Amino acid sequence: MSEKQVFTVIEGGSVTTPKGFTAGGLHCGLKKTERNDLAAILCEVPATAAAVYTTNVFQAAPLKVTRESLANGTLQAVIVNSGNANACTGEQGEADAYEMRAAAARELGVNELDVAVASTGVIGELLKMDRVRSGIAGLPEKLDGGAAGAEAFCQAILTTDLVKKECCVKVKAGEVEVTIAGAAKGSGMIHPNMATMLGFMTTDAVIDGGDLLGLLRTATNTTFNMITVDGDTSTNDMLVTMASGLAGNEKLTRLHADWEAFAAAFTHVCKSLAMAIARDGEGATKLIEVQIDGAVHDEAAAAIAKTVIGSSLVKSAIFGADANWGRIIAAVGRAGVPVSPERVDISLGGIEVLRHSRPVAFDEEKALHYLQKSDTVRITVALADGEGKATAWGCDLTYDYVRINAAYRT
To answer: Where in the chain is the domain with CATH 3.10.20.340?
Structure first.
């Protein structure tokens, strides 16, 4: 069943579209510019919640606090700042994250253990807590259930991002329409493993916590875990989902007749956000999509796809509009999974450049035009080794990426 048959994208929808959610943001002074840098999402009731996190062993203080809050399986609010990651900040950093949770709970009128904390920005610097305290005190009046609140929230979580990332869909669960939405930030230091940079999803569906966590993990594996910008996994990666249950549907479980439709809608939101992150990679000019077919199994296909999309040589070739299939097949060959070296086909946007691991004559001018003019470059690799398939997304590697990251802290 196609995506269009099971759910509908809500144009202009946001994290405040599902029933029960408000959001907002403001500038408290963590960023040098006047852009928003502190935000919150609030649910009017304790929501069933789940999260996935970075696997980087150096985990920022907010992750410890959020894990503790989620131990009971519910959340009612998320407090998030940009401009400072609060990572590698020792005992003081942990104390500051706990203070953020306590202050948000007090100002928003919720249980402290129902508040998640997230931070993003420069690593190794202590938060300016006087500014954070003042900002949290001003957040309640900024919360809004409409587009303005969602916009302020999205702007507040950005760092080097050029654009906000959000998606919203609706899907039927029995006779009831439920809504799923998400917002994310991420542009650099992107190579997630069980998480993304920062992501926040809301839904008004009635769903068990275990089923929500399982769905989140499954969807993450085929979306957020299949993107890369620069091969770096952050200390702060986190994806949090809250389900208010206010749609009033019959509880969704894996045995529900509409579970597959709900899962498809949920996964679409994750995929949309993940692709938006890849497209907005620091300095990027193009989104790159790598599709692997015919691997020995899906896991092998995923490993190959991520190796190709993460190759600096492949990314550089795409930036330079060079149809250099040699960069691609070399990446395929070093992915560490079984591949028959004599049966690989490669195409660039439908232009076949390799057949059975041998070069074929192709129109160089046509390939050049495709690579220069397309804002999305699709690389297809067919292996003929099995039924495994996977798709990964990334971006080209440009001069601007080096410029941005050479002076990120200063």
So the answer is: 287-406
Q: Is 410 annotated as a binding residue?
A: yes
Over residues 18-31, the pLDDT tens digits come to 999 999 999 999 99
Q: What's the rounded mean pLDDT across residues 70-97? A: 96
Spatial neighbors of 85 by CB under 8 A, at least 6 apart, are 60, 119, 120, 121, 122, 123, 124, 234, 235, 236
Where b means 16+ CB within 10 Å and e means fewer, 241-255 reads: bbbbbbbebeebeee
DSSP β-bridge partners for residue 239? 52, 199
**Which of the four pLDDT bands, split at 50, 70 and 90, describes residue 368?**
very high
196 annotated to a ligand binding site: yes
Please, what is the end-to-end C-alpha distance for the chain in angstroms? 50
Question: Which CATH fold would you assign to the domain 287-406?
Answer: Ubiquitin-like (UB roll) (3.10.20)
Share of the chain above pLDDT 90, in %: 82
Q: Please give the helix or strand (H or E) that residue 136 lies within, else none.
A: helix 129-138
Question: Is 185 part of any known ligand binding site?
Answer: yes
What percentage of the chain carries pLDDT values higher than 70? 95
| 159 known member of a binding site | yes
3-state secondary structure of 402: helix
Q: Is 172 annotated as a binding residue?
A: no
196 is catalytic: yes
pLDDT of residue 193: 65
Residues of the chain with CATH 3.60.70.12: 3-279
CATH number of 3-279: 3.60.70.12
pLDDT greater than 70 at residue 190 = no
Identified catalytic residue from 66, 74, 89, 196: 196
